[in-house]
Amino acid sequence: MALHEDEIPVDEPIVRTLLERERPDWADRPLERAGAGTDNTMFRLGDDLLVRVPRNAYNAGMLAKERAWLPRLAPLLPLTVPEPVHHGAPSDVFPLPWAVYRWIDGAEAGPDTVDDWAAFGRDLAGFVRTLHGLDLADGTLSGYRGGLLRDAGDWVDRSFAACAGLIPGIGTLERMWRDAMLLPDPTGPRVLLHADLKPTNLLARDGALHAVIDFAGLITGHPDAEHATTWDLPAEARDAYRASLDIDDATWQRARAWAIVVGVSGVAYYRDTFPAFVAECHARLSNILATAP
């Protein structure tokens, strides 16, 4: 199902044709759909490769960002990250760039794949500490999740209005959002952010955090929004993460507000097109409500 008005459909025959044209050495490998997110559709290619095809032109630019940055980041980070191995060109078959990566063995972080959530939270904090400490800040890597809460005010207000009656406790969530906007702005330096550390981008293996994937949202900015996705995790992981990074109360409240932003806007935008993602948003917002003062 299309998620965006400007989405370009893709299927296995299209991907097979792209491979035949650019990588005939891979074209006879088994090919099967391996999931789809809000930005890309994925296909597993043989045992060791993954094809990612952007849904629209905006997300094609994100793949170019990964191609430029992942080789620089990989040797500096404590967890496995994707390795680009081929950059596909636009063509009459598919008009956007596409990409092939090494396959990473692992499964989405969840109750069936993680043995110790507190350890998971500490390992995730260690990854974030390392990423934020890298001296690679680049002013060209901008994005709203690295900015200030008040800069998102207008479209967040529209999302709250669109979700009236759809989200239990929406009044409490809106109060928490508005209270956070009254807090002092972050004063620390802008750092390199992954910007989308939700469980679908965190792969577990042997019961522990093994890999972080999907760096399409990589930006430089204030770290508040980086912490927001911990509300997708059990409380044990979230608490261990916060303790490991020694996050102060104001930063934590702003991070929670960013979690509300993504949850409410996700329900508003995808409510008729992507039920699995909407369910993730509802679960996140429920976790937030459980922490409401």
What does this structure look like?
- Keywords: Kinase, Transferase.
- This is Aminoglycoside phosphotransferase (APT) family kinase protein.
- The protein has 293 residues and is α+β, with helices and mostly antiparallel strands.
- It folds into two domains: 93 residues, Phosphorylase Kinase, domain 1 (2-Layer Sandwich); 178 residues, Aminoglycoside phosphotransferase (APH), C-terminal lobe (Aminoglycoside 3'-phosphotransferase, Chain: A, domain 2), CATH 3.90.1200.10.
- It is 39% helix and 15% strand.
- The chain is built from eight helices and ten strands.
- The strands form three sheets. A five-stranded antiparallel sheet has the order 1-2-3-5-4, with helices on both faces.
- A hairpin with a 3-residue loop joins strand 2 and strand 3.
- Helix 3 packs parallel to helix 6, helix 4 packs across helix 7 and helix 5 crosses helix 7.
- The N and C termini lie far apart (39 Å).
- The model has no long low-confidence stretch (mean pLDDT 91).
